[in-house]
Amino acid sequence: MTPEFEILFEWLPAPGVVDPLLASTWARYEFRAGGEPITLALDPESRTVRPGVFGSLLPLAEWVAGNWWNILHEPAPRVPAGSIRRICDYWDRGWLARHSPALSAEGQAYPDLRIFSSGEGNVVQWFPDPSPLPHRRVRFLGEGEVSLSTEALSNALGEFMATVLGRLRESLETGWEGLEEEWRTIGRSAEQEPSLCRHVARLGLDPYDIEGRTLESVETAIRTLPEPLLDELTAAAGADELDTCRKWILAGTDLLARKRNRTAVLDIRRRLPPLRRDRLPWETGYRRAREFRRTLQIPDDYPPNLEEVMETKLKLDPSRDVTIRRLRSARLDAVAGATEGGSAGILLAGSGALPARRFRIARALYALIAGTESGASVFSLLTSSHTLFQAESRAFAAELLLPAQLLHRELAAERYVPEERVESLARKYRVSPLVVMHQIENHRIAALPVPLGGRAETRSGGG
Questions:
Q1: In the chain, which end has fewer C-beta atoms inside a 10 angstrom radius, N or C?
Q2: Which of 411, 420, 318, 308 is nearest to 364 (CA)?
Q3: Where are the domains of the chain?
Q4: pLDDT digits 0-9 by tens, 207-219
């Protein structure tokens, strides 16, 4: 069986390398994910392509130890796309430093690699060098993306750290003690306070360097919120708004738990095919929307009246079962909940314009029908983050409100869709222009004046 992630290396002598720490960790190394070579590189001088490169692994070990919890548990703030040199001007450079060893290479040849949490595992993404770098002898050529379990990634990185530290201890009498102590601290934290470290990292912070108030907020959230809601909250909220968002969630789940309406949510869940997740979360969302439509006997090329679907098919009253409670944060969109008795409801974080409100409600419907078949109570948090669940819910909402088949019919004779036409379609189907553009581009229906980038998701709030 192909390992999900591995770092392969062979220790080599390092003539001419003055620093003893760098020299003792000199190696020929390869990074692989799902069997794919991440370090596939071109040597311009010899004009040869090889799967690995030469250099010191010490900076990589220091990067792993310094960012351990963030690598494993912090999601991306948006859909990562493009090489570091192309996106670093508008991306959070702090996030890139925590998730890409290329920014901590200290002169070594490390590829443009990014490792981050998807919410239900990890994603390894790598990009080719757009052009040769003047200070580096090789040019990385590989490009790819692999999803893997957090356990597999943790094991691979842990074995790498143990081997590097063993090499340092064997080769040198001193100089490596700081790195070893840092690694021991991580081991102790993993045994004593893994939840605290994980959620601090999901906030984009260093678990070993947080202020007292932030620490108190995280500890309170851990004590009071169920793990699924806590995971989505810390993936989306900033540390300064954690308390405000936590209180809003608790008030919302309490409100929904006290509902005594009789809905068809559990019945629809049971009638739907088992949820099957694709490699790409938006494909999962698209397919689930089509399955939902077929289960409710709504044609794939028909724009649904969302309120009518809720009332007649799900037995949800749009005026009573959808509640609005304002929140001073743009990070949360809604809480959706269904109880084991069949009651269900949706709490929206503010009203917003009609297209945004309909999009949030549609995302909440995904949360309601994506629950277990057992009928157990399920509460879900819809946010602005880019975890798998959030991406699936956005794709579901877009395909439910504006199905691809409908757009194919509308634009059958149009190869190019100007901005005015996008705006017209958005008004006609009561969605945001961004939803229209994403559906056109993601389903390859026609060309747009400004491409969105194919893989980009529909943003929360309907655009």
A1: N
A2: 318
A3: 5-186, 265-462
A4: 999 988 999 999 9
Angle between helices 433-442 and 388-401 (to 10 degrees): 100
Per-residue pLDDT, averaged over 371-389, amounts to 76
- Residue of 206, 183, 156, 158 lying closest to 31 (CA atoms): 156
Q: What is the CA 112 to chain-centroid distance, rounded?
A: 18
Q: pTM value?
A: 0.89
Q: Is 229 helix (H, G, I), strand (E, B) or coil?
A: helix
> Which own/partner pairs from 435-442 qualify as long-range (CB within 8 Å, at least 24 positions apart)?
435/355, 435/359, 435/398, 435/401, 435/402, 435/462, 435/463, 436/402, 436/407, 438/398, 439/398, 439/399, 439/402, 439/404, 439/407, 440/407, 440/411, 442/282
- pLDDT number for residue 457: 45
Q: Bridge-partner residues for 346, per DSSP? A: 322, 336
Separation CA 417–CA 440 (nearest Å) = 9
Burial class (CB in 10 A: 0-12, 13-18, 19+), 28: middle
